[in-house]
Amino acid sequence: MDWGGPSFVIAIIAISTAGWIINNWIRAKHGYSLEDEWGGKTERADTGETKRLKAENAELRDQVESMQDRMVNLERIVTDRGYSLSDEIEALRDRPAPKVNHSRSDSGVPLNLDKKELS
């Protein structure tokens, strides 16, 4: 192989160019700024859709934060009242059942749950 011949120089240029293209492709794929041919950085221009999506994301983040705040408040209310509610239920279990006068609360219509109504 002739190290000083034109084919060797062209091979080095081709390998360098391919490496530069692959490097920029990987950077673009992962969202990094790209290098131009003089080593400067070029940023992607935001399209209208990108700006709209960023605004929508910010709005949705605000909604999620407010919902999380509400959930924290609701959890606090539920857990604070949960203890007293269980105490009230236990207190009701300890009390004797009230006597019910069936003559006043009974409608007088006998219910026969064994028969099924035919339609």
Structural class comes to mainly alpha
Count of discrete alpha- or pi-helical segments spanning 4 or more residues: 3
Oligomer: single chain
Count of beta strands: 2
What portion of residues belong to β-strands? under 5%
- Major sheet strand order: 1-2
How far the N terminus sits from the C terminus, by CA atoms, comes to 100 Å
Global geometry? rod-shaped
Estimated helix fraction: 55-70%
Sketch the major β-sheet: 2 strands, antiparallel
Gist of the model:
The chain has 119 residues and is mainly alpha-helical. The chain is built from three helices and two strands, in the order αββαα.
Keywords:
two-stranded antiparallel sheet, mainly alpha, 3% strand, Phage shock protein B, 2 domains, membrane, 63% helix, 119 residues, 3 helices, 2 strands
